[in-house]
Amino acid sequence: MSEPEVFLRKLTRREFRERMQGGELKACILPVAAIEQHLEHLAMEHDWRSVCQVADSVAGRLRPHVLVAEGVMAGISEHHMRHPGTLSLQPGTFLAVLADLIDSVVRAGFKNVLVLNGHGGNMAACHATWDQFLRRYPVNLQFVSYWDVLTESDAKELLKSGHRLPDDLPGHAQEFETGIALAAFPENVREETRTDQPDSSPSVATAQRGQVFLERIVERVTNYLGEMIEGKRVARTPPFFP
Questions:
Q1: Residues 196-235, buried b or exposed e (16+ Cβ, 10 A)?
Q2: What is the residue-wise DSSP string for the chain?
Q3: Which residue, 47, 22, 19, 24, is CA-closest to 34?
Q4: Which of 30, 107, 113 is nearest to 69 (CA)?
Q5: Virtual CA dihedral for 26, 64, 225, 170, nearest 10 degrees?
Q6: What is the pTM of this model?
Q7: Does the structure show a pLDDT above 90 at 241?
Q8: Distance from first CA to last CA of the chain, Å, rounded?
Q9: How far is 73 from 117, CA to CA, in rounded Å?
Q10: What is the rounded average pLDDT of the residues 99-115?
Q11: How far apart are CA 193 and CA 60, in angstroms?
Q12: Widest CA span of the chain, in angstroms?
């Protein structure tokens, strides 16, 4: 017998309805990221691929109670647009689409919604408006970037090129992200250019350390979402104007 599906897009409407009405589904992960340049050696899908890798693994660990709902691959990437091929959404567009996705899964019945972020450029817009999202959606709605669960101690232990947060962890296409790609989807790493570019930090990345990072991220995000489901981590609705 196959295991319960973790991707919402793979379900039929009957399968979703039965799992939701039967009380099996407890939480939804909404991954958000970007499609943008990642130096000369990483595929542009890196942010999206990495956040979905984490979301998939977390949902698998919490199976059958969690679904992953991928709705939008592009993010706020204007600061990368000098490199052709990058896709970027205006902050207002990104927030409007995110609001529609949250609205969709809340209306579907989810009471716990984790927006799992994989791109630094999305953070400022979300943090600046999150209190408005909390007022609009009366559920346990939380936003976290997957690297937020890592610490300076993790960086000092596992990074050879530096341990500053956020400069080296997560950085951008440097040792941390390159290590994750080498561990999880090495076909996205162009070895011929990884060590032949001005930024030398990608050259010291290894699949082994990338795998350790991934294992720690998945374990901690799993604990984070598990606490949401158990009611131990609850987003409080900010007060309304009297």
A1: eeeeebbbebebebbebbbebbbebbbebbbebbeeebeb
A2: -PPPP-BGGGS-HHHHHHHHHTT---EEEEEE--B--BTBTB-TTHHHHHHHHHHHHHHHHTTTSEEE------B--GGGTTSTT-BB--HHHHHHHHHHHHHHHHHHT-SEEEEEE--GGGHHHHHHHHHHHHHH--SEEEEEEGGGG--HHHHHHH-SS---TTTTTT-SSSHHHHHHHHHH-GGGB-HHHHTSSS--GGGG--HHHHHHHHHHHHHHHHHHHHHHHTTSS-PPPPPPP-
A3: 47
A4: 30
A5: -140
A6: 0.97
A7: no
A8: 55
A9: 11
A10: 98
A11: 34
A12: 61
What CA–CA distance (Å, rounded) separates 68 from 75? 18
Location of structure tokens 């890592």: 150
Residue in 161, 130, 162 with CA at minimum distance from that of residue 145: 130
For residue 113, list its beta bridge partners: 28, 141
Is residue 177 a contact partner of residue 38, using CB atoms and an 8 Å limit? yes
Cα gap 239→227, rounded to integer Å: 24
Question: Model confidence over 165-191: pLDDT tens digits?
Answer: 999 999 999 999 999 999 999 999 999
